Amino acid sequence: MFDALASLLTFQLLGLEPDSRVGAAFHFFIMDVAKIFVLLVVVIYLIGLLRAALSPERVREFVRDRPEWQARGLAVTLGAFTPFCSCSSVPLFIGFVEAGIPLGVTFSFLIASPMINEVAAVILVGILGWELAALYVAAGLLVAWFGGIAMQGFRPERWVEDYVWKIRMGQAADVKQDDSFAARHRYALAEVREIVGRIWKWVLIGIGVGALFHGFVPSAWVSEHLGGDAWYTVPGAVLLGIPLYSNATGIIPVAEAMLTKGVAVGTTLALMMSVAALSLPEMLILRKVIRWPALALFASVLAVAFILVGWGFNLVV
């Protein structure tokens, strides 16, 4: 359906040639805009109905006072199934610290939350297929689990800003939850407006970059520089993702265009992870609660993990 719509608008209405670079770029852009935004609205609404009772405070209370291995598993799982992005890092970090949750567990949550979410997973399935979606989610869960453990080994408590330890957020008010369908429907619609309103421009930018890559970058050049087994392609993809700002959803069209041009799967996954969890804005937001040594350590742990994941997938896929 989306391909037919893109063909109608690109080749019949606009009169572009299917074999031309401009035609290929426009077709890619229109098809992905339609497909991704329809999926975004439908998936966010349906998940919003199920997630109406969830809040950052409840996430915090759910993880509190559990054994560390269990708390880490819950933190990683909740990070993957909650809509919190880098803009939520500071209040969540403070809430986890106030609840007495180990910092290693907190960092596992902060890695998983922006990098993996169910909306991106569903869109990955729709755009790139369930195999790549499963690879991305599995790799993200592993990075979040072991990344938090690595951070804990360096005793990051000494690098947390002093004001964080002094804050006492207190217990959330015990307010009766309205579980009626009407209330859940209002919540789901609000989720659609809030999340789509926050990320739409990044999704369009990602689709635009993917369309330009798909239409104008020659396949031969991509195969020569990014499609082979050269060791430097994966570190290069991780470094490329740092100055970019997007989320797991916004980077999917770029990944789609890279894969269609022959870029290796591991290199593509490394770029997706770097953009979602290692972007410069994410680091600057975290700087509000942790000092530069912890920030540098956090970035280094993630960069090494993404490179190892990329190299590993390039070897086996």
Give the fraction of residues assigned to helices.
Answer: over 70%
Distance between the termini: 30 Å
- Low-confidence spans: pLDDT under 50, at least 5 residues? 169-175
Compressed to H and E, one letter per element, the order equals HHHHHHHHHHHHHHHH
What profile does the largest beta sheet have?
none
Task: Tell me the number of helical segments per DSSP (H or I, 4 or more residues long).
Answer: 16
Question: Averaged pLDDT, please?
Answer: 80
Q: How many whole angstroms does the radius of gyration measure?
A: 20 Å
Strand content: under 5%
Structural class label: mainly alpha
Shape, principal axes of CA atoms: globular
Question: Count the strands?
Answer: 0
What does this structure look like?
The chain has 16 helices and no strands. With 317 residues, it is mostly helical. It is globular and about 65 Å long. The protein starts with a helix and ends with a helix. Mean pLDDT is 80; it is low at 169-175.
Quick tags:
317 residues; mainly alpha; 16 helices; 73% helix
Which helices and strands occur, and which strands form pairs?
Blueprint: H1 2-13, H2 21-50, H3 56-63, H4 68-80, H5 89-98, H6 103-115, H7 118-128, H8 130-153, H9 162-166, H10 181-216, H11 219-225, H12 233-241, H13 252-260, H14 265-277, H15 280-286, H16 292-316
Helix pairs in contact: 1-2, 2-7, 2-10, 4-6, 4-8, 5-6, 6-8, 6-14, 7-8, 8-16, 10-13, 12-14, 12-16, 13-14, 14-16
